[in-house]
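Hi D.,

Good news: the full-assembly prediction came through. Inputs first.
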Amino acid sequence: MIVSRIVIEGQRRLCGELELQGSKNGVLPILAACVINRGVSVIENCPELSDVENTLLILQSLGCTVSREGHRVTVDASTLNGSAVCGEMTGCMRSSIGFLGALLARTGSAEVGYPGGCALGARPIDIHIDLLRRLGARVECGGSVKAVCTDPKGSRIRLKGLSVGATENAMLFACGCRGITRIENAAAEPEIVELAEFLNAMGHRVKGAGGRCIEITPASTCRGTVVHRVHPDRIAAATYICAVMSAGGDVLLCGARGCSMANVVRTAANMGCEFRYDRRGLRVSANGRPTSPGRIITRPHPGFPTDAQPMFTAVCSVASGQTLIEDTVFSDRFRQCGELIKMGADITVESGRVRVKGVRELQGAEVKAYDLRGGAAMAVAAVGARGRTVISGTEYIDRGYQRIEQSLAALGADVERTDG
Ligand code: EPZ
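Then the structure:
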């Protein structure tokens, strides 16, 4: 396998316009949901990410006919002929677990290898297993997860914990149940709302998405061809906001929707960023040294998103003042701090939180991405650092960012990807 690196010469201001990629965490459950549609699903603005490519391979392994033209993906699930997804295909990403609910809804059975995904601490699937059983499935957890439901009946269930993926799994399975399903203690992330939009386009009736209680009435007949345009990626937007704070500049994020990232915008504004919304998106500008926001505590939506925490930690490393950053969602999401310290950051890692004392500037160094957002955090640090930074582990970054080096270069950063 070619090992590529991203090389960045820092301290070039970022200016210009950037079309935000389609949302990774929005499109992945929607691609799994294509299995439920017995016709053709057309997914517009589908980002070019390795997690998307792997999901398309899973759909093909199930017998679906998949084609891609640029950012348009077409999935014909009328040819579906399987209900098992092997561990080799599921072990590289967390979102593959959504095929449990989707396949149960379509075929009444599912065998899915255990999901993988970024190492962010323990990532059990107990909430998923519990909800499938509450909805009437018989579930066995051996070398893979096997679920069967011969008579899927809609019912009222309460998720035993707040989980984005488990909420999505419950929504998908509910589309195959007889009668109405009511999901309580549901996650409220924007990606849940987007999945509901897609299921409604398919003919199901999903109400309450974005709140803690979602009600699903399955479609009596599916509508054949369903078209969905993937929403802009709010975490990619947060990433580029952090890059502007780190390097300085003025960037229009085309397609950015303030409603899905209010907490991120508020925190960045407190750090000295200026924002202006216009009809094309969100303009962000920053000049001079950022100011520490004091504290960042991640929480389930509408709280501060855990996925933006690593990139904000990178910016707080050069902010004036001290920042206490706690991640209440994942127990071990601070691996990027070791790499930031190599660049001169002053960070003390405690249990489940870090204390960051801002330094005037970071120095370029050889650093590594250990997970997706940690890798993005290194790019954010590098564009503001003095000198050259070489980032390895780019395969993690490519899981969630569409050619990040091209996006940064288009905004004026001195960045290139080297192979080998
Ligand atoms: C989704 O992961 C996202 N991934 C994550 O984004 C995101 O960080 C996370 O939601 C939280 O917003 C995708 O959408 C593909 P959870 P998910 O289930 O569904 C615990 C990124 O960088 N939990 O809401 O796996 C879990 O360990 C990725 O884009 C259980 O204990 O997250 C975690 O502590 C990273 N048992 C918390 O709940 C379960 O059965 C939240 O996890 C499930 C989850």
